[in-house]
Amino acid sequence: MLKVQNLTVAYSDTPVFADVAVNFNAGKITGIIGPNGAGKSTLIKAMLGLIKSQTGTVSFNGHALKQFQKQIAYVEQRKDLDLTFPISVFDVVLTGTYGKLGLFRQPSKADRQRCLVALKQVDLVEFANRQIGQLSGGQLQRVFVARAILQDAQLIILDEPFVGIDLQSETAIMAILHQWRDEGKTIIVVHHDLNKVSHYFDDLVILNHGIVDYGPVDDVYTPANIERTFSADLSAVLFAKGGAQ
Amino acid sequence: MQSVMTFISALGKYDFLQSALITAIMVGVMSGMIGSFIILRGMSMMGDAISHAVLPGVAVAYMLGINVMIGASVFGILAAGLIGLVASKSKIKTDTSIGIVFSAFYALGFILISLAESSTNLHHILFGNILAVSDTDMMTTTVVLGLVILFVVFFYKELLITSFDPTFAQTYGFRVQILHYALMLVLTLVTVSALQTVGIILVVAMLITPAATAFLWTDRLGVMLGLAATIGAVASIVGLYFSYTFNWASGPAIVLVAAVLFGISFVISPKQALLPTLFKGKAQLRRRVTA
After folding, report:
1. Among A231, A227, A185, CA closest to A30
2. Where is the ABC transporter domain (chain A) (predicted)?
């Protein structure tokens, strides 16, 4: 279990959120939703230590998360990457082995084999030698999920993986997430909208400059919570009979 | 053709020309390799800044009679650190921070050199004087080339991932900042070596032009490194030939050859350039017309 306790993050004195406490369960896919600017990406970046937090502790199975850095796979937002970089799909996936290899060791034959297997799992073997800029958004997202497979991590965090991707990619990625869940891993997904929330996730965290609510998706994804966090209109549309659900 | 033969026979005759050629090739190779990482990390401005910021180090080294590499490294790293400090501890953006720090260092260098008023010729530091390379210079350059190759070989994986996806490297606990400063240190060593061939002002051209040319021809990092090194070496050889034959200043001659190679690649390289795009456009047009 990933346990976050009184986590506070502020950018130059303006707090993004204060004293956040939330748990993420192993063997569950947990979604994080909230309005734009609610601090979703900030929360996971602070948990990962990518940005400084003013207060708080993050522990994984009772130990500080910092000691488990090699057990973390982070799939960041695609827009943060340089897609003109001279690197092939295969080599991007292979970088998933770097963390556990450490300095001065090169990926082995077995690592390369695992790389091919991961590419097969996301159905991208025939793209292995393509430069990454030649892929569609959905294919690219699958590349980074394949890299996470290679990392063989216990904690997997994905930042908006479903933005602008095709149905085939979405299905492939969901299949991998389900496999991870069945293996007892902890999976956290920052989600950009309210579509298919109960379809994707087992647990849900609603964030709006602090935790609004968290727990099993059926308990948390309620008209009252959505109305409180987003708007009454949205809640009415989403929970109307025969609506999006 | 005649002049090429003259150049080759002169190479056999004159030691200074041999030293010049060997040093120029080594500088071309090392700056191509390090330059590749500089452009991929979007740090061309930083490369320019560090190359200028070593000037006070060069002056101080002459004053104290110590190795230029040491003086330059101290000021190169100091500049990189200050740039990082100003950018991270204030709301000033990195490019502005670079501008402030490197111009200040450069200015300080000018004053120190005029104070030193030694045999150091400011003109040679600024524009290079490849034909006056001493044996010691050549030895130092060889050591730096060795260091650059070892650095790239041993830290290839780390250089790749921190250039492509530094956030990812951070998440698995890699100390991205340490490698950044190691690269800055290697960059200052390359800068001081390149100072002999092309001078401080044009070092940045040796760093980015061959690397950018190589980038146009490949989408594999390993190939890009090799290609950039080769292009750097070729530009150095051809530049030196022009310099010897037409009595041009060697630094500008080398840099111009590199720029011409880039220009040719820009027009004919398959990756993004003008001609293939034009032809593709025409071919598509023809297909559309005949269809």
Report:
1. A185
2. 2-234
